[in-house]
Amino acid sequence: MMGNNNLSFEEMWEKIIACDRKYDGLFFTAVKTTKIYCRPSCRSRKPKKMNVEFYHDINEVEKAGFRACKRCQPEVEHSPHVGLVRDIITFLLNHYKQNLILKDIADQVGLSPYYLERLFKQETSETPRTYLEKIRIDKAAHLLKCTGLTNLEICYEVGFQGSSNFYKVFRSLKDCSPSEYRKELQNELD
């Protein structure tokens, strides 16, 4: 059974609106009005926010009386390594604030660092490091949107060890600096 993740309701909502595949299997979106549950990446029409519940385990959502979506088939695991990759992603989500090295992650799931990186890349098309950076930047974007923390405070809050790497990774993933990102959000609200 998969462990709980660090995502708030708002963050999970953002992931389903973005149809973000990297969160598939970490949580399920259950729609109270239709009694159907989906993967975060499901391309079906999005429900109203008030009609959504999130579950972290497929058994929980089914026990609550929801049935699987026929479009995204959340009950089907498409690879024999899905469970292992899901465990790695859950570990990354729960420990993203820490200074992680590949060996830490490999020790957690009982694989060699080399095999872990190869398997993870085969399943997700990314290395654990780039995946972790994306999680950190997603968290940073959420904090920029929802808090008044400074960019430097956010940098350390999401697990980056230095501001230059934070700014470089943020710019490469969001095509703007953290300050520009916050300014764009302010302009959208005005």
Automatic annotation (TrEMBL):
Matches recorded under InterPro entries: Ada-like_dom_sf, Ada_DNA_repair_Zn-bd, Homeodomain-like_sf, HTH_AraC, Me-P-triester_DNA_alkyl-Trfase
MF terms (GO), sorted A to Z: DNA-binding transcription factor activity; methyltransferase activity; sequence-specific DNA binding; zinc ion binding
GO biological process, one term: methylation
Protein name: Adenosine deaminase
Domain of life (superkingdom): Bacteria
UniProt cofactor(s): Zn(2+)
Lineage: Bacteria, Bacillati, Bacillota, Bacilli, Bacillales
Keywords: Activator, DNA-binding, Methyltransferase, Transcription, Transcription regulation, Transferase
HTH araC/xylS-type domain ranges (all copies): 86-184
Species of the source: Peribacillus loiseleuriae
